[in-house]
Amino acid sequence: MRWPGILAYFAEYLPVTAATPLLTLEEGNTPLIRSTSLEKRLGVGALFFKFEGMNPTGSFKDRGMVVAIAKAKEEGKEVVMCASTGNTSASAAAYARRAGLSCIVLIPQGKIALGKLSQALMHGARVLAVRGNFDDALRIVRFITANYPVALVNSINPYRIEGQKTAAFEVVEWLEGVPDILALPVGNAGNITAYWRGFKEFFERGKTRALPKMFGFQAEGACPLVLGKPVENPQTVATAIRIGNPASWKGAIAARDESGGLIDAVSDEEILLAQRMLAEEEGLFVEPASAASLAGIMKKAREGVFRGKETVVCILTGHGLKDPDIAVRQNEGKIEEVEPREEAVVELLGLGGERP
Length: 356
Ligand SMILES: *Cc1c(COP(=O)(O)O)cnc(C)c1O
Hints:
This is Threonine synthase. Pfam families: PALP (PF00291). Belongs to the threonine synthase family. Its EC number is 4.2.3.1. The chain is an alpha/beta fold. The protein folds into two domains: 6-59 and 160-330, Rossmann fold (3-Layer(aba) Sandwich), CATH 3.40.50.1100; 61-157, Rossmann fold (3-Layer(aba) Sandwich). Helix content is 42%, strand content 14%. The protein is built from 15 helices and ten strands. It has helices at 6-9, 38-42, 61-74, 87-99, 114-122, 134-147, 158-164, 166-175, 190-204, 224-227, 249-259, 268-282, 288-302, 324-330, 342-349; strands spanning 32-34, 46-51, 79-83, 102-108, 126-130, 151-152, 181-185, 213-219, 262-266, 311-316. The strands form two sheets. Strands 1-2-10-7-8-9 form a six-stranded mixed sheet, with helices on both faces. A four-stranded parallel sheet has the order 5-4-3-6, with helices on both faces. The longest helix is centred in the middle third of the chain and has 15 residues, at 190-204. The protein binds pyridoxal-5'-phosphate (PLP). Pyridoxal-5'-phosphate binds next to helix 9 and helix 13.
């Protein structure tokens, strides 16, 4: 079957009417990849990675954005706007263009990864860099979209959460059941809210007989949900979760408590180590924020939480190419220079032996 995108495939679960344009860049249907090496070391029964970096703009944001933009188009809007740490703006810019709408994005100045910025610019969005952080940018976007004819497409737009819940449906369909634990990074907390809604909806419709425990992970320098209060100046290398006052705070707490799960924090060092392990051991290149899910599962493994039987799904929210600077910076000095001669390369590689 040719994949039709999430609006068509999951139409019965989404706010799709006869008037909704079936917009698509063929988002969704992302791989659920079984771990080859980490699963044994962590002492879980089975470990899967849902690689959301395989969505058309390279992050899970496409699932919610396709619904938000289709509904904006249906409602006759011509301009959409969002605040973004990067991936939302890349996705909004792409889908807005696809739908023939124009797009304005507000980004925190100097805090946005190069890959994401290049996407928003290439798709022709109007990009404003706010001299402040993400929370400042979102406050301004809320004001403008409340007072002017501009559609808000941040995850406080309910259509975003509706679209994002389809990832939970895919996990259930591909696993033919729910995992014991679903682990994911948490920033603005829209995604953890969306997954929990998706699992509950499949449960209520009799598509599954169980529910997973939701394990959310924030970065230590940006963990308001762990501290129980907003963080004034959030700091982390994982820019996609550098958020001090999550918009979906209540949704995250409900997902944690209703599922019997947890929300914990991991350090930047743990995040970067998990990112490297995914790349070196599993062949999966993700951006730093995405690695927070595995970093969190590694932390829980050290704490002795697992019994060797659990099925764990880690959500890898965005592609590694989004943030090439961090990847290159971590590998500084690793490129070896060599003269353009065959013997020089043979010698450098230590191949030795007889000359052919
Ligand atoms: C947006 C984003 C997150 C955080 O998702 P929230 O819904 O804001 O919690 C995590 N990882 C990546 C790559 C993202 O783009």
